[in-house]
Amino acid sequence: MKLFLDTANVSYIREINDLGVICGVTTNPSLIAKEGRDFKEVVTEITSIVDGPISAEVIDMKAEGMVAEAKELVKIHKNIVIKIPMCAEGLKAAAALTKMGIKTNVTLIFSAAQALLAARAGATFVSPFVGRLDDVGAHGIELIEEIATIFNIHGIETEIIAASIRKPEDVTACAMAGAHIATVPYETMKKCIDHPLTTQGIERFLKDWETVPKK
Ligand code: E4P
């Protein structure tokens, strides 16, 4: 399973990209709004940091408008992926963009049927939201398993981006469930790095090293 960073904060993106663990970034209108900066300016900066798929979301709710927005966004960089909300107009837009050779990420997926339809419309990626399902008492990981099973059985090439990740355990559970990618928020990525026994181990090694006779 590959890892993307789920943020529009360029400082976070630079820091995590330097670790060599991510190969893409996802943004959404809420993440962009947090930055208080121009949308295209932020996305352009992200493309200069990470050499991989960068999801930028359209906001028009009509297929025609989504396609028009997408055509503008892909002018920014070859790595731009058009993020489209799951709905009838979104499917129509995904199908049209696929025919034009433009990559899409159909987002806000909460059922396997939605994922199947998005894949059949030609989506490059689908984004099932694990955490938001867990929040309402459902099981996000089960959705990842279902989609992975369906895509495997039917030889569907659309990649599953497990989204709405809240904790390190979600990351590993998504990997076990068959997600191709997990898009991980900065704070969760940092938590994945640390472990109290690692910190303790480093401290012990350094302390013991002080007792080694030096010539
Ligand atoms: C990414 O593609 C999604 O927009 C994001 O993971 C949603 O996360 P949230 O449910 O924490 O807002």
TrEMBL record:
Gene Ontology BP term (one): carbohydrate metabolic process
Main location class: cytoplasm
Keywords, comma-separated and alphabetical: Cytoplasm, Pentose shunt, Schiff base, Transferase
Catalytic residues of the enzyme: K83
Single GO cellular component term: cytoplasm
Pfam families (alphabetical): TAL_FSA
Keyword Cytoplasm in annotation: yes
Gene3D superfamilies noted in UniProt: Aldolase class I
CDD domains: Transaldolase_FSA
Compartments where found: Cytoplasm
A GO term for molecular function: transaldolase activity
Recorded metabolic or biological pathway in which this protein acts: Carbohydrate degradation; pentose phosphate pathway; D-glyceraldehyde 3-phosphate and beta-D-fructose 6-phosphate from D-ribose 5-phosphate and D-xylulose 5-phosphate (non-oxidative stage): step 2/3
Domain of life: Bacteria
Catalytic reaction list: D-sedoheptulose 7-phosphate + D-glyceraldehyde 3-phosphate = D-erythrose 4-phosphate + beta-D-fructose 6-phosphate
Function, in words: Transaldolase is important for the balance of metabolites in the pentose-phosphate pathway.
Family: Belongs to the transaldolase family. Type 3B subfamily.
Record-given protein name: Probable transaldolase
